[in-house]
Design goal:
The complex is a heterodimer of chains A (302) and B (179). Chain A is of the alpha+beta class. Among the domains of chain A are: 82 residues; 117 residues, Roll (T-fold). Chain A is 29% helix and 29% strand. Chain A is built from 7 helices and 16 strands. In chain A, the strands form 4 sheets. In chain A, strands 1-2-6-7-10-13-14-15 form an 8-stranded antiparallel sheet. Chain A has a 3-stranded antiparallel sheet with strand order 3-5-4, covered by helices on one side. Chain A has a 3-stranded antiparallel sheet with strand order 8-9-16, with no helix packed on it. In chain A, a hairpin with a 5-residue loop joins strand 14 and strand 15. Chain A starts with a strand and ends with a strand. By secondary structure, chain B is an alpha+beta fold. Chain B has one domain. Chain B has a 6-stranded antiparallel sheet, sandwiched between helices. In chain B, helix 3 packs across helix 5. The longest helix of chain B is centred in the C-terminal third of the chain and has 18 residues. Chain B starts with a strand and ends with a helix. The chains are: A alpha+beta (302), B alpha+beta (179). The interface between A and B is large, with 69 and 43 residues. Strand 8 of chain A pairs parallel with strand 8 of chain B, so a sheet runs across the interface.
Chain lengths: 302, 179
């Protein structure tokens, strides 16, 4: 039988959500093998960066890095490096050391002994110090990190890299709404309306780029809390912006910047420009706003 | 801030882009079997029927309610050697019905979990139907609508907690009925 070029779409439960991978332009068996490997990459990120798994890099850091330098996987190091860069660039607004605030809101389980409460005593010093040879140390004793605001996008990027390395010419990876696509033809992505989760707000075509969304309706979590973006200054959920979507060259950037657009609103435009990203911002009241470069490739409806 | 402009979508269009229940069909049972055990030469089906003692055991071991009276289980064989188990299950969440497959190695370790199909609903009309019944008998000969009318949605963070709970229940089934 002659192998024919075809198209495959699969999904697995990973990263606490559903990860979907579509691939096309190669024989079916080759696509299946590539997709299986791409899911393997996502699972690797999951095991390294889960807050919940006791032997993840994140859990080891939270147990030990306040006491001594901890060596992590190069992928974890890369995410922490980007997180530190974003912390500096946003004046401390992008903060992975908010696990304590998330725990107080019941969005993360409590593990081990609680560090002393330090609400309102935030230091301008970055919480994480990056050392040589993939080693990491916390700068304060009370730091607990959670990479939930960035790891999903990073996992999508790793899956895309795996598909490409396997020779897949066109594909899309979607981890619970963090989406990246590559290849000669664009993919269509619908953006859900954060004000009405049963509705689609608009339709975007993406090709060799990523889109991620955050917002009240997007990040519904079990237990009734409606949003998992916490302002590190106040320790309370962000409120003025209803939701945001960010398009960026990579999904890790799109994922991280959605959190910053929700927290900083329109003042996030400098950060967007710095990372070659654009955003759509849905405020709690008033008009929906888009940054200038957003409109390229966007269709409002079908 | 000069970097932002008002997004002007015609309000009528925004309202009319309905978001109907989102449903995606990923793989048929046969396709998922092949993906899980590419080397298997055949799959032998055994529809496991639960005795009341089985149900009690599975519920005790997993902490999950057993809704079905049995489970679709296949033994994956290379010639006559068992290389694993392939089990089809479904879970019902608040907004989702999910058919999925679990591949176990012969010792009961999870190799992977693959979603076969999911249906999403914000209306609640799906809560009481037996989706397993719909699912039985689907084969790779059924029409696949890959890349046709399947929508990628950004902003749809859906919890996979129900599947995680379902996997626990299936592992308890393995311990109770297959081990």
């Amino acid at each position: 039988m002659t192998p024919v070029s075809s198209s495959v779409r699969r999904a697995q439960p990973l990263l606490g959500t559903f990860v979907g991978i579509a691939a096309s332009g190669a024989p079916r068996d080759a696509l299946h093998a590539a997709i299986s490997r791409a899911f393997g990459s996502v699972a690797d990120v999951h095991h390294l960066m889960s807050f919940h798994e006791g032997d993840s890099d994140v859990s080891r850091l939270n147990r030990e890095a306040a006491s001594w330098p901890v060596r992590v996987h190069p992928w974890t190091y890369e995410v922490l490096r980007l997180a530190s860069e974003l912390y500096e660039a946003s004046g401390g607004l992008f903060d992975i050391a908010i696990a304590d605030a998330l725990q107080r809101l019941g969005l993360l389980p409590r593990v081990g002994a609680d560090p002393p409460a330090t609400a309102g005593a935030r230091s301008p010093e970055p919480p994480v110090e990056l050392l040589s040879r993939d080693r990491v140390r916390f700068t304060r004793g009370d730091v607990r990190i959670d990479l939930g605001g960035i790891a999903k996008g990073f996992a999508v990027d790793r899956a895309v890299a795996t598909l490409r390395a396997c020779g897949v010419p066109r594909g899309l990876v979607n981890a619970g709404g963090d989406v990246a696509a590559f290849g000669p033809e664009p993919y269509t992505v619908d953006v859900r309306d954060p004000r009405h989760p049963g509705r689609i707000l608009l339709r975007v075509e993406i090709r060799d780029e990523a889109i991620a969304s955050s917002g009240h309706a997007f990040d519904r979590v079990a237990g009734g809390a409606s949003m998992a973006i916490v302002d590190p200054g106040s320790g309370r959920p962000a409120a003025a912006v209803r939701g945001a979507s960010v398009r960026a060259p990579s999904c890790v950037i799109a994922d991280a910047l959605t959190k910053l657009v929700v927290l900083a609103g329109q003042s996030a435009d400098g950060l967007l420009a710095r990372y070659g990203a654009s955003a759509l911002l849905v405020p709690c009241g008033g008009d929906i706003l888009v940054s200038h470069t957003w409109a390229q490739g966007v269709r409002s409806a079908s | 801030m000069n970097g932002w402009v008002r997004w002007a979508a015609p309000p009528a269009i925004v309202v009319s882009i309905a978001a109907p229940a989102h449903a995606v069909r990923y793989l048929s049972v046969e396709q998922a079997q092949k993906v899980a055990f590419p080397d298997a030469t055949r799959f032998v089906e055994a529809h496991v029927l639960f005795t009341p003692a089985d149900v009690a055991s599975i519920e005790r071991r997993s902490g999950q309610k057993v809704r079905a009276r049995g489970q679709q289980v296949w033994r994956a064989l290379v010639d006559d050697r068992i290389v694993g188990f392939f089990i089809v299950d479904y879970v019902i969440g608040k907004h989702l019905v999910i058919d999925y497959a679990i591949a176990l190695d012969p010792g009961g370790q999870v190799r992977h979990v693959e979603i076969l199909e999911y249906r999403e609903s914000y209306g609640g009309e799906i809560s009481n139907r037996s989706w397993l019944a719909q699912f039985v008998g689907k084969t790779s000969r059924d029409p696949l609508e890959l890349d046709q009318d399947i929508r990628n949605i950004s902003g749809a963070t859906l919890s996979s907690r129900h599947v995680t709970e379902g996997v626990k229940r299936v592992l308890a089934l393995y311990d109770t009925c297959l081990k």
